[in-house]
Write a structure and sequence with these properties.
globular; 5-stranded mixed beta barrel; 9 strands; OB fold (Dihydrolipoamide Acetyltransferase, E2P); alpha+beta; two-stranded antiparallel ribbon
């Protein structure tokens, strides 16, 4: 019974998106434009080193040289907010090249790149379904397992949708 419920949930959430079908509240996806840029492409190069220890699989982030060169640098990104905690306003959230309403585990090419964003000064940013432009400092996290491996710290939200990134 449990497997049947899991399959029904998978089919309901993922198959229509993967097949290109429109869901009733997904009209904004019709005009969705990929937001990949040079920074997103560099973030997408992060990989994991897989090892075994005491019968457990350990995933350790591996940052290639191109990604390590961004560590500590200020970058601009445009993406969709993915809340980590419930609420309308957020000081920390994920930023993705795909909107939250598009199943991130379906379709082609695996999971899209995402980055954890911490807003400067603890300012609370209202959630938006539209893409947001941010600027902040890249931090590569290889040790704190409770936080994302790719982070943008001291982020500010840029005004207007026509920001160049």
């Amino acid at each position: 019974m449990k497997k049947l419920i899991q399959w029904v949930l998978f089919a309901t959430l993922c198959i229509p998106v993967a097949a290109g079908a429109q869901q009733p509240d997904a009209d904004h996806l019709v005009d969705h434009k990929p937001l990949m840029n040079r920074v997103w492409e560099t973030f997408d190069q992060m990989m994991y080193k897989v090892t075994k220890r005491d019968g457990q699989t350990i995933y350790t982030p591996h940052f290639p040289e191109s990604l390590r060169r961004l560590d500590g640098k200020t970058v601009s990104l445009r993406g969709y907010m993915i809340p980590i905690e419930p609420g309308r306003r957020h000081t920390v959230f994920l930023l993705s090249v795909l909107p939250i309403y598009q199943c991130m585990f379906c379709g082609q090419n695996g999971i899209p790149p995402m980055v954890e964003v911490s807003v400067a000064g603890g300012e609370k940013i209202p959630f938006s379904e539209s893409p947001r432009s941010i600027r902040g400092i890249v931090h590569l996290n290889a040790s704190d397992e409770s936080r994302a491996e790719l982070q943008i710290r001291e982020a500010i939200v840029l005004a207007g949708d026509d920001e160049k990134n």
